[in-house]
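ARCHIVE CARD
CATEGORY: sequence design from structure
SOURCE FIELD: tokenized fold
FIELD CONTENT:
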């Protein structure tokens, strides 16, 4: 799924979205962020363990990476934070990177498995 930048620009002028609408926008943005080593977005890859929004537009995300030895482990949470701050209605983002439970192929969506030829 491609992030719709025109829709994004139009929404800059819109009133604050509901929590549910905000989470839809955040998921769309997460689906535009790709793992640095695999050609799959981080949401479908199953790297996002928890995603919450407050009424004030603050996003809390708990995520992992495919391996603790990932070359971008130190910088990737900031990359995710910066992208999510671009979503209309998002007023703050906390990204927590965890290693437990470890990521596994079972976390991937069917679409991601198909994209990687695992089905």
């Amino acid at each position: 799924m491609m992030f719709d930048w025109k829709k994004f620009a139009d929404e800059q002028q819109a009133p604050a979205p509901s929590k549910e609408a905000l989470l839809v926008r955040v998921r769309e943005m997460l689906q535009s962020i790709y793992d640095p080593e695999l050609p799959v977005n981080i949401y479908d890859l199953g790297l996002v363990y928890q995603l919450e929004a407050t009424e004030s537009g603050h996003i809390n995300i708990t995520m992992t990476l495919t391996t603790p030895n990932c070359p971008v482990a130190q910088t990737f949470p900031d990359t995710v934070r910066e992208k999510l701050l671009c979503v209309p209605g998002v007023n703050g983002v906390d990204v927590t990177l965890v290693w437990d439970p470890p990521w596994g192929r079972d976390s991937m969506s069917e679409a991601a498995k198909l994209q990687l030829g695992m089905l």
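CARD ANNOTATION: Strands lie at 48-53, 58-63, 92-97. Residues 78 and 95 are 8 Å apart (CA to CA).
SHELF: design records, drawer C
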